[in-house]
Write a structure and sequence with these properties.
The protein has 270 residues and is mostly helical. The protein has 11 helices and no strands.
Amino acid sequence: MLCLIPELMTLEPQGDPTQPIQQALPAVFRFLDLSGVFFNGILGGRLAREKRFDFVGFVVLGMLSGMGGGIVRDVMLNAGPPIALTDRYYLIMALLGALIAWLWRFDGKWSRRTLVTFDAMVLGSWAATGTSKALGLGFAVIPSILMGVTTAIGGGMIRDISAGNVPAVFGGNYLYATPALCAACLDAGLFQAGYPLWGMLASTVLGSTFTILASWRRWVLPEARSWTVSMTHRQWRLHQRKKRLERDSRRLWEMPDTGAEDEENASACG
């Protein structure tokens, strides 16, 4: 990410009074990026412990979880070697996270909450990084948003598949891909408006807040069976005919009996 920041700073309007803040953002994003690799390495190690893998399994899942999304993004963008392989700190942080997960269990309530919080903080940052990098290379908005989401959730998906699990983003878990998508869309909008650095900052805040709220409130997307049509076309037609007959019968009952009124009037006149 750090190599992307100077290019984005040249796109910001000059003479901005917030220039000192913008100059401090590269260090902030660098910290978030490496922290995300570290904590996702721990998440990969936790899964390796659940699967009873040996130390090699801890290392592989930690590397896939921490660096997989960025590597997939860089390969798909075809913009040179993946940054995770050219910057040694990425590999060091992923290995360190896997090693710590091998030494400690991280099964307590507060340890899990801490991992979820830091993972959420990084999700928006990674989504913004992938989106901005693709837009900076001249890709259209929709593919760039896709690259942002891939950067944010790709490592976790590869980790889960490698461990023989269904990726958590496919359902049965709180919202994760949706906050990444929202963060990527926000970053793309501000990038197009000429504020790429502020877009990355706003996307980071949005993605982390959305993810933490989704985890706290247990927000999930509806399953397919909640929206699946369970009747054939013939059954649907019979159902509509039944509803129409019931509606017509109610109208008949609600209509006034004019015949009885005419007989009463005739008898009164007689």
